[in-house]
Amino acid sequence: MLVLSGKGGVGKSTVATQLALALRQAGRKVGILDVDLCGPSIPRMFRVQDRDVHQCDSGWVPVFVDQEKSISLMSIGFLLEKPDDAVVWRGPKKNALIKQFVADVAWGDLDFLIVDTPPGTSDEHISTVEALRPYKPLGAILVTTPQEVAVGDVRRELTFCKKTGLRVLGIVENMSGFVCPHCSECTNVFSKGGGEELAKYAGVPFLGSVPLDPQLSQSLEEGRDFIQEFPKSSAFPALVHIAQQVLDSASQRSS
Ligand SMILES: Nc1ncnc2c1ncn2[C@@H]1O[C@H](COP(=O)(O)OP(=O)(O)OP(=O)(O)O)[C@@H](O)[C@H]1O
Ligand code: SF4
Question: Per residue, what are the HEC states of the chain?
Fold first, then answer.
């Protein structure tokens, strides 16, 4: 399953990490492949940026987030000397690495592989879809913020999915309002509803609105398990609902 967005910074990696945590809580084994080669953020969000990957007979061993090995990660961030080193590569080199990431990582027996992509539709996206094709990916989740400009960029992602034959699992509207922790009043910091309108217009499912939630950003900053630790916070129900819809799509496909 791919997580895509037209614009940077709308919360793709956030949705990818929280989806992994919610699927783990539902008893699933999840891998996250970070193909954002120029700005990998997954290792940092799990606070494992200092770990190294090593080779075994069946390829690279991913980094496990927990002792139970229920969330495994692969990212270029683990291969760089310093986590903040920049990757300045041309398309063919990026494509080769993505192919290796899909085929040469000892992922083991996963229920879901979530792929966190860079923004837009670049070489990385095409290589990822090509490399995953033999594994018949479940589809793509498109993340947007409510503003018109971000929603507009998602239209290009929809076209990309159509052209590459990737099923759209649905659209997530992130940073959709701020729920006051004191009086629970929701303030629409940006506009609201753009993601839902686009989903209706495009005839794809709307997976939900995730509000701006300081406990969520703090958990990401500190590498904590938001889904386990903050079930009463404002973003929790939306994130769990998104994971449930992914589980439903997977079980519909296998039945
Ligand atoms: N719903 C939310 N509530 C609070 N903070 C959020 C929320 N969604 C994302 N953030 C914060 O916004 C920042 C950007 O999110 P994130 O890195 O997930 O975006 P991205 O689309 O993956 O960015 P990039 O294009 O750089 O890959 C992060 O610091 C994250 O903690
Ligand atoms: S939303 Fe309610 S509690 Fe929060 S700052 Fe405004 S008035 Fe105060």
Answer: CEEECCCCCCCHHHHHHHHHHHHHHCCCCEEEEECCCCCCCHHHHCCCCCCCCEEECCEEECEECCCCCCEEEEEHHHCCCCCCCCCCCCHHHHHHHHHHHHHCECCCCCCEEEEECCCCCCHHHHHHHHHHHHHCCCCEEEEECCCHHHHHHHHHHHHHHHHHCCCEEEEEEEEEEEECCCCCCEECCCCCCHHHHHHHHHCCCEEEEEEECHHHHHHHHHCCCHHHHCCCCCCHHHHHHHHHHHHHHHHHHHC
Name which residue leads in pLDDT, 151 or 137: 137
The total domain count for the chain is 1
Q: 103-145, pLDDT tens digit by residue?
A: 899 999 999 999 999 988 888 899 999 999 999 999 999 999 9
Atom of ligand 2 nearest to the CA of 181: 4
Q: How far is the CA of 182 from the centre of ligand 2 (A)?
A: 6
Atom 6 (ligand 1): residue with closest C-alpha? 217
Q: Does ligand 1 come within 6 angstroms of the Cβ of 36?
A: yes
Q: What is the mean pLDDT of the chain?
A: 90
Domain at 156, CATH number? 3.40.50.300
Please tell me if the CB atom of residue 176 comes closer than 6 angstroms to any atom of ligand 1: no
pTM comes to 0.93
Model confidence band, residue 83 (pLDDT cutoffs 50, 70, 90): low
ipTM computed for the complex: 0.93
Residue span of the structural domain in which 31 resides: 2-254
Q: Is 59 annotated as a binding residue?
A: no
Q: Is 9 annotated for ligand binding?
A: yes
